[in-house]
Design brief:
heterodimer, A: Rossmann fold, Rossmann fold, 6-stranded parallel sheet, 4-stranded parallel sheet, about 45% helix, B: alpha/beta, 5-stranded parallel sheet, 23 helices, about 10% strand
Amino acid sequence: MNALAPLSGLANGACDAAPVVQERGQREVFCGLTGIVWLHRKIQDAFFLVVGSRTCAHLIQSAAGVMIFAEPRFATAILEDRDLAGVADIDDELDAVVDRLLARRPEIKLLFLVGSCPSEVIKIDLSRAAARQSRQHAPRVRILSYSGSGIETTFTQGEDACLAALVPTLPPEPENASHSLLVVGALADIVEDQFARLFDVLGVAPVRFLPMRRAADLPPVGPSTSFLLAQPFLADTAHALQERGARWIEAPFPLGAEGVTLWLRAAAKAFGVSEARFDAVTSPARARAEQALAHYRDALAGKRVFLFPDSQLEPALARFLAREMAMRIVEIGTPYLHRRHMAAELDLLPKDAPIVEGQHVEKQLDRCRAARPDLVVCGLGLANPLEAEGFATKWSIELLFSPIQGYDQAGDLAELFARPLNRRARLEV
Amino acid sequence: MQLTLWTYEGPPHVGAMRVAAAMRGLHYVLHAPQGDTYADLLFTMIERRDTRPPVTYTTFQARDLGADTAELFKSAAREAYERFSPQAMIVGASCTAELLQDDPGGLAKALDLPCPVIALELPAYQKKENWGASETFYRLVRGLAGARRDRPLRDRKSCNILGPTALGFRCRDDVREIEKLLATLGVDVNVVAPLGASPKDLTRLGDADFNVLLYPEIGLAAAQWLERAHGQPFTRSIPIGVGATRDFIAEVARMAEVDPATALETNDSRLSWYSRSVDSTYLTGKRVFIFGDATHAIAAARIAQDELGFQVVGLGTYAREFARDVREAAARYGVEALVTDDYLDVEAKVAELQPELVLGTQMERHIAKRLGLPCAVISAPVHVQDFPARYSPHMGFEGANVIFDSWVHPLMMGLEEHLLTMFRDDAEFHDAAAPSHLGEKQTHRQPSAAAVVSDIVLAWADDAEKELKKIPFFVRGKARRNTEKFAAERGLATITVETLYDAKAHFAR
């Protein structure tokens, strides 16, 4: 690899893709349970009950960072020895926990039973439990299940599993439904509202979002539905939607001015919006985004960035950083690369940016140290140790918790990467 | 199956990590799925450690379950040894790997690595973090301390300090304070462990004459074993607070056969004088609720009652292993101990007792915030704020000074309280203005227990309501609750000025 190669003059739609290296070894990533931290905020009358161990409970409260919610809309049913030894009947125990929970929280309309590593290993059938409990608690509460276990899901794949579990429960489209758009993947409410306004002015309607903010507002789906992925980690959800007859609109992801434009344009095209109208509607917002990005370009241009695997957002982020901020990409780590969903991103990526799928954290750290990048994008477990070694780091988890998609957040996204460099420039201690 | 919202303790392997991360030259190979690597951030973010914890996770995935997870463990252990060349290794399984029954201890033994390998059995579905730390430390000490040996004749006695770990509450500064105290007493420190010790250091534990046990939750099992196997007595008093520090000095002096006078006299405790100063009279009888690990909770109760003149209205712990000690202590203050690891129980208790100060963990800090009560943190589980940049022990005489400041500042200062009464009608001191120390405005008071419990609709007569408003706002809520409770108990439908003062007399202390 030649990490120092200049990345200017890249051709659009280059077909010879960047090299992808598979790596196996110790992974330093969250499991899918972590998605609960943002999903429970998104669906405001849903509750997430993890069936797992004390480790699961500890993980979620540690990943949430601070315990700011008096009584959060997530909890763990902690498996104990008597559950494992068969002294207690797991179905009875779980039903009792769910009854107690729903009695305490009458406002809950949708309950997810979330599988974990231990529940998967001892093969607790949560889908059966969910069906049984749904019958019991209908119509007040619907109960679904999915797995957020670390042996099957990495970090953001938990959201994928959650949304995929929702898809079969979405109502069918009415007869002769008109062409509708479904935006799939959790976005901050403010971002959702911005997109809704843009689609409205473009004349793309109706537009619905998954996940929905309220459990009752399930978007209908069927052959007249086209869907756009707002997040790159939704392989199973997309598949489930396609099973329902919905059509996927291929596009890069809505990060950065260029990403947002390509994403919106793909939808506009699918809905027959003219190029002229598209430009007229989007150009003011696009100009605003570019103006915001310009503030940070000096700080980031030419700087070398190394991305550790975390959320599967990495290729899209690297595309944004390389093309819009003129950064140089040392390595793009990703826990998993969905080649089909990522194809539009890969086309735009610099061809010499090596993509590493999977992880061997020690070897990756060795490569990072040897490359001496200007900025390392990594998880919370690695950030402070790397800072102590002299690297500027950006915590990757913030990219999931902050609104970064859309034109009016493009500047905020750039700022997230510029801030660690800015801070280093200021400090004299 | 236990329904849990927030937990006081992590799983036992996190306890093992606290020991491993505290030590040098030790490496932990943990058979665990990828998600368990979250534990690294506890150390790198909460404690801001500048290195990763010395832990290698096997991070097996679903596809490995059908193949050979045991082989995965072996290669991880081998690679970890080659990369880190530790003096010793500990090996074990987290909750999920425990179900696989791969026997990390046996597998590691079969690898025949050129360093001591200590196998940990930490039953994840029965035990919790502190137990895991204690068991790990005990296994390490037992595995490495060797046989009893003759101790060299020395002029000065020497001791080990046992119990401080990574992610512990103020361990870093407590150790420094106690080392200073021991130096004043003329006692040498042989080894501090686990914090800062290497496996080689643990082989020297037997050279000391006795052990200073600072954190029984972590170090008691090791101290008891050293007492049996190496004939080293260990200290029972925990030097948190002025009185307890004096007791500790006396106990160490007896064990070390030294004169405690200098250490007792050269103390720089300001707590004793500050507590006696007239400004502190407003602290008298403040009702305090205490919850934490057993060691810190028991110590806090003694300080609260004897050294600050508070009244202990509640005392509890999440450390079931030490429930007996806490129950004994609670009996001394005439309260029933709350032993639970369900924070909702704790919250209900705090709401019921309506203390004027909450001393607890980060969990109680949140409870107190919601209920609009002042709070100080006295115990793990910890938060980034519990690793202050400044020197801030809780042990020894300086620790008592720190405690005085950190418990008293959240309360209204005496003079301020007086001024507020004088100026209560001033625009800046209007009813809705929250006490300055609480920062943001207080949360909405819930309807008082009396009003909810009783079927009678309690009505305040206009003159009673006016009289209530003359009471300073920071005690008005309590006055309202007490009066309503008083009225409800007596079946009074209307609260008059008389009722208000009857209740005041009834609850007077």
